[in-house]
Input
Amino acid sequence: MRRILSGLIMRGLCAALCLSVLRASPAAAASRIDRPFNDGWRLATGEIAGAERPDFDDAAWKPVTLPRAWNEDEAFKVDIHDLKGGITWYRKRFVLPSGVGPAVGGKAFLTFEGVRQAGDVYVNGVLVGGHENGVTAFGVDATKALKPTPYVNVVAVRVDSDWKYKERATGSGFQWNNDNFNVNYGGIHRAVRLVLTDGLHQTLPLYSSLGTTGVYVWADAFDIKGGGATIHAESQVRNASDRPRTFRYRVTLKDVDGKPAGAFDGPTVTLAAGETRSVSAQAPLKGLKFWSWGYGYLYAVTTELVENGASVDAVVTRTGFRKTQFRNGMIFLNGRVMQVHGYAQRTSNEWPALGTDIPPWISDFSNALMVESGGNLVRWMHIAPAAQDVESADRVGLLQAMPAGDAESDVTGRRWEQRVEVMRDAIVRFRNNPSILFYEGGNENISDAHMAELKAVRDQFDPHGGRAIGSREMLASKVAEYGGEMLYINKSGTKPVWAMEYSRDEAARKFQDDFTPPFHKDSPDYNRNQDSHAAEDVRRWFDYWRERPGGGDRVSSGGVNIIFSDSNTHFRGDNNYRRSGEVDAMRLPKEGFYAHQVMWDGWVDVGRPRSHIIGHWNYAPGATKDVLVVSSADRVELLLNGKSLGQGVKSDGFRFTFKTVAWAPGTLRAVGRDAAGKVVSSDERVTTGPAVALRLTPHVGPTGWRADAADLALVDVEAVDVEGRRVPTALDLVSFDVVGPAEWRGGIAQGDSKGGVKPTQAPASPTGDVVTGAHTVDGVTSYAGASRRDDNYILSRTLPVEAGINRVALRSTLEPGKVTVTARAEGLKPATVTLDVAPPPAVEPLLPVSLARGPTPTTPSFKVRRVAIRPVATVAGSNQEAVGLADDDDETTHWASDGQLANAWIEYQLDKPQVVDEVVLKLIGWRLRSYPLRITVDGVAVYEGAPAKSLGYVTLPLKPVKGRRLRIALTGPTVDRDAFGKIVEITGAKAGLDTGAEKVAAGGGLGIIEAELYRRP
Output
């Protein structure tokens, strides 16, 4: 079991010596201790000669509790390219407990969840190990270097966070040490643990550093309705003793409430001295509850080594059980089809002035918001996520796609070997986490040979986990088990395909619409306001939702919006950080958050109708604006002070527009109705009075605010009217006073706390195309941006509310007590809140799980809304030998006519006369090219026009004419003109490749990638 045995500060040892005394209780004697090792460290930057020596004087170093990046103050204050790298030293003193670990012939390991970039670990001046990849967890065997109580042991860690760090043995850099995508918060930026074991013990899941694989737990033979499955446990066991050891392998389960849920035994095994072997046990169990989306049901599975009736080693694995399948282009979770919808989120998942230095409950706070917004999947980007975030996703019920290490593009040689190694390490480390559903082999396509190599790693170390391995793109791969483009819509009838990143535009939370101060006019290319950003979210998601399961044999398995929270990484807008989040960097929701709640409330089809009015209802007299409502209802009526303003015009599946609504104070209400006229949803906005006061609302962890110099409290500040309602147009500058044992970390806002020369109001982007460089050069827009040098109020004690609210963070110290926060703004009544900071508990508590969405429903997740019609023959005016490529379920192939307009037709012959209700096409150059088309059935025109340009597929409704021959013909020359502006990252040839336009010249040619015929069921 994991226990926290608190470190004691030995104040008499020397003036500034922090010393942890690790005590073992009698009950823990000769058994495993696995506890945090984060307190009592000291930090200094720069190369320091002799800092590894035990007698080195570190009295002047900064006391810290890990994780702690040395440059956390820069998070969101500067551009990612300006984050500093360099050498950092960490030191810690501690005394080993007696009766456990090395004191009784056992082992001692230090495990590091992550250092950035490379770390060397010294124990009592001896180099005991290290790590260079900057991504995965690693461990060191410190057994021989440690000395028993009462000796004061010293751990010193040297970390090199140079952006250009080279692997020592080979001179190779690491592809993912990239100053666009992988933010450099240098040092020991993830948690550390101390593990003390018996000589006979289960190994740790740290393959590259220790050569060991740990415990593997999985389930099969599922009976989802009956709550049954066969549970398997397997442990790699090592006998580091100097004699043979005989033990029995025992497995016990406890449910989420800590109640017994099953037990079974494995074999009795004898290991020779120095031998390592895997042992396993399995048994069918009943009464199980299965992990699901928004239902983080976890079991504590204890695997024990029992010798002579006593447990000499026990490992608790917190895991969940779920059944997955990937077939017919669809994803099945516990037997139910799921279209994924969620976020492509930078793995850093960082916070202002904190970076990744956050406690686990903050990860839950953030990741649970993804689920609350309707997200069911987070695709971490470029590198493997932190264990803290992986375990958090388990608890909140959020599916994960796990990369390992990448920037973009395939590589060869040592750089490819590095990628294989981090994938192997990440799989071994996270194969027990039920939330991981996908292993991602690359942020761009890789060769089938490389994919096969990664798949072999998966099959070796996680053959039973029910996880697909694939990569971005990989549409024609014979090896990848899933794929999908970055910006475009893909469909498949075989492996699932889903969009890896879509809806890329940026919008700061502060800028609401054209009519709200600071009057930010929408500029669609990476500089939107909130009205426009939310509308674009709707527009982009509808492309995937329209092609969801239930719509034929070929479907889209969804997509993930980039990004969830504003990020200190690769950006294109005016600021020095990315603002395309659906929440801001402090996790305050933007309008897109609520738009997604509406659209994503279901596994495939919408489960519960919702409506959301975008924006507020506080305007100046005479204001007239278009009101946008996001709704999953069939029709929406708008009422102002009870008077109907009519029905909204529906577009993009979920958006209802009410043109030129004249503002009047009062209540604006949207009412959604189904096809029968029944009210199924509603939302309203009320005009507030002017702001008269401030209000503070604190957020602390489930066990309260802990005095460990690492825990955080978040405090919301709102400007409210006389009735206590937040004033959505308030921009008041608020100053904070803090009294008590707390460290101010502050928040974020648009602007510069020093009143620099740059404007705090971001203007519209300049007109014309934005020129971008390749990722290896710059990867951000070439124009300077209005606010690129602003400090964004990072660490400032004064910052404005935006849209009436902001949020700040405070970090505890080692001193318990009361912390009083007071907020003041000119002309407003101040607000005060007092928080208690309590000593950390003696035993490390488990964070609670979320069961909010309940178990996987047993009902179907979608209705069949159209049925595919398969032609019996296809003929064309030219290139007859290639016609099969137009409906081969392979988006990397196509049929094209010969360029002569008279020959630009293709005809599908059906087995019997019937009505075709829709034709769905993916055309060459789908976002660039206009195709004037005529579709006929037995010579009768059923469609004529130019299909809309798209990000993939277009759906053409046809007149109901029964026949056996459906012909698609080009009626005039095609013309290229981009319909989506600056949606691609780089211009030129890449734009052509992304749309396919380079494959068929514009003019008299018809080019079809896929054509589908459908009828209503």
